[in-house]
Amino acid sequence: xxxxxxxxxxxxxxxxxxxxxxxxxxxxxxxxxxxxxxxxxxxxxxxxxxxxxxxxxxxxxxxxxxxxxxxxxxxxxxxxxxxxxxxxxxxxxxxxxxxxxxxxxxxxxxxxxxxxxxxxxxxxxxxxxxxxxxxxxxxxxxxxxxxxxxxxxxxxxxxxxxxxxxxxxxxxxxxxxxxxxxxxxxxxxxxxxxxxxxxxxxxxxxxxxxxxxxxxxxxxxxxxxxxxxxxxxxxxxxxxxxxxxxxxxxxxxxxxxxxxxxxxxxxxx
Amino acid sequence: xxxxxxxxxxxxxxxxxxxxxxxxxxxxxxxxxxxxxxxxxxxxxxxxxxxxxxxxxxxxxxxxxxxxxxxxxxxxxxxxxxxxxxxxxxxxxxxxxxxxxxxxxxxxxxxxxxxxxxxxxxxxxxxxxxxxxxxxxxxxxxxxxxxxxxxxxxxxxxxxxxxxxxxxxxxxxxxxxxxxxxxxxxxxxxxxxxxxxxxxxxxxxxxxxxxxxxxxxxxxxxxxxxxxxxxxxxxxxxxxxxxxxxxxxxxxxxxxxxxxxxxxxxxxxxxxxxxxxxxxxxxxxxxxxxxxxxxxxxxxxxxxxxxxxxxxxxxxxxxxxxxxxxxxx
Lengths: 269, 329
What we know:
The structure holds 2 protein chains of 2 kinds.
Chain A: E1 12-21, E2 33-43, E3 48-52, H1 59-66, E4 74-79, E5 82-83, H2 89-97, E6 99-102, H3 106-109, H4 116-126, H5 131-145, H6 161-173, E7 179-183, H7 191-208, E8 211-216, H8 219-225, E9 228-233, E10 236-242, H9 243-248, H10 253-260
Parallel strand pairs in A: 3-8, 3-9, 6-7, 7-8
Antiparallel strand pairs in A: 1-2, 1-4, 4-5, 9-10
Helix pairs in contact in A: 4-5, 4-6, 5-6
Chain B: E1 8-19, E2 22-34, E3 39-43, H1 50-58, E4 66-75, E5 78-79, H2 85-91, E6 96-99, H3 103-106, H4 113-125, H5 129-142, H6 161-172, E7 179-183, H7 191-208, E8 211-216, H8 219-225, E9 228-233, E10 236-242, H9 243-248, H10 253-260, H11 300-304, E11 310-313, E12 316-318
Parallel strand pairs in B: 3-8, 3-9, 6-7, 7-8
Antiparallel strand pairs in B: 1-2, 1-4, 4-5, 9-10, 10-12, 11-12
Helix pairs in contact in B: 4-5, 5-6, 6-7
C-alpha cells in the first residue's frame, strides 16, 4: 500500500503511441497505414478502463502495441513505471507475464490438440513450476472460473463456447497477472452466457485485485463495466471521460453518434 | 370483431435433422402468424431455431439432411411445404424474399451490383434489358445508394459492408415482395450503420406494405424495430405478444431473465442476472418444459408436463405453468 499522501503511479502509461502498418501495395497504401495515431492513455491500478470504437478503428492494434506483441512505431509504453521499449527481450518476457490478453473468439484461442490441462500448464512449465504445484494451481484456477477440474483431461471441442471462454480466462490467470486486456471477450457469446462471463470477470477483478483494459464496440456494455471510457475513431482517441460524465455530456460528435445508435436508446432498457 | 387474415401462417412446424446418428430437434412444433404491414420480431439464442424457421419458409432446407419436416406453412391458402420445387421457385425471391446476415457472402463477387439486381427483375418480372436497368437505378435510389451512379457498375468488393447490405436489400425487394425475411441483417455491421439499416427496413415496409419477419438474438434491436415479438427457446415459442405488452409485462421466466441479463450503465457494479447452465442439448427430448433445468421457478410439474402456449392477456401468449409468479434473484 502507498504511504499517505503519495500519488500512486498509473499501472499503464502510453505516451504518443503511433503504429504504422507497413504498406505492400501501390500509391497511398505503399506509404503505410497509420492504424494508431498519437494515442496517450493512462490506466490506474484497480480500475477498468474502457476502449470503445467501431471495427477497424485501431482498438486491437493499440492493445497489441501496449503488450509489445507488435511494438509501436513510435511512442512509449510504461508498465509499472518501466519503459517496455528499453527492455532486453528476456526482461520483456518477465514483464509480459504480468500482463495478459483475452481475445474475442475462444475457439481459435485454444489449441484443439491439447487437453485443457496441457494448455494451462504450458506457461507454468516455462517458468519452472514443478508438477505438484502446477496441478494444485490448475485445479484452483479451473475451480475459480467455474469449470470442474475433473474435466481437465478433456479437449476444447468437448466444451461449449461459454465454457471455452472460461478456460481461456483461467489460462491467462496462470501467470498471476496484474493487468488483463479483454478484447471483445463476450462478443461471440449468447446473451444468457454473456452475463455469466461478465459476472465472472467482475468477481475476478475484485478477488485478485486486477486492472482491466476492456475493449468493445458496444458502448452500452463498456459503460456498464468501466470506470473511465475512451472513444477511439480512425486511430485517434477523440474523447475520454469518467463513464457518467461521458454518458451525460458527450462532447465529440462521434461519441454522440455512438450514443444515439445504441438500440433502445442509451442506458439500455 | 373481424380478425384480419394472416399473410403467412406457420402451423405446428417441426424440423428434425439426423446428424452423426443422432436426431437433432431444430424446431419442436411452432405456430406463428404473420400479417401484412407488420414487423414480427423473432428473438432467441444461437441454435434456438430462428434460421431454420426462415429457411423452412423459403423452402431452402436441404432436403437430404432434413430427416423430417412436419406441419404446415400456408401462404395465400397454399401449403408451401407441399409445393413442388418448380412452383416454389415462382414465389421464392419474388413474393417471399430474404436478406441474410453477411452481405459479403451472398453477393456474387464476379458480377456488378447493377447486373445482380437486373437478373432478378428480368427473371421474375420479364422486364427488358432497358427496363431492368431503369428498375435497378430506381431500387438503388430507394435503399439510399442513388446518389452515386457508379454503384450500379461496381463490383461487391468496391462497396463498404453497409453499402453491400443496402444492395442486398435492393435485390430482396426488387420484385415487390409481400413478405420479407431479414435474418440478423445488422449483426455483421457496426453500430452506427446498424441504426441506418433498421430505419431503412422500417421505411421500406411502409412503402411496400410488406409483412416482415425480423430475426435477431438481440432484444434491444427487436425493441427498436418490431411491432410484434415472439421469443423462441430450444425450438419452441415460449412467449409471443405485441412489443409494448412484451416489454412492459414479460410473462415467461426466460424472457424476464433475458431482459435482466442485459448490462445497463445505470446499474454499474451490480451483478447481472445471469441465466444459469447451458442451452438445452438439441438432441434431447424432455417430457416437460424445455427451460425447466435453468428456470428459477421450476417445480415438479415443470419437469413432467410441457406447458402449452396459451393466451394470458389480450394477444399475449406464454408457455409457462407459473405465469406472473415472482421470484427472488
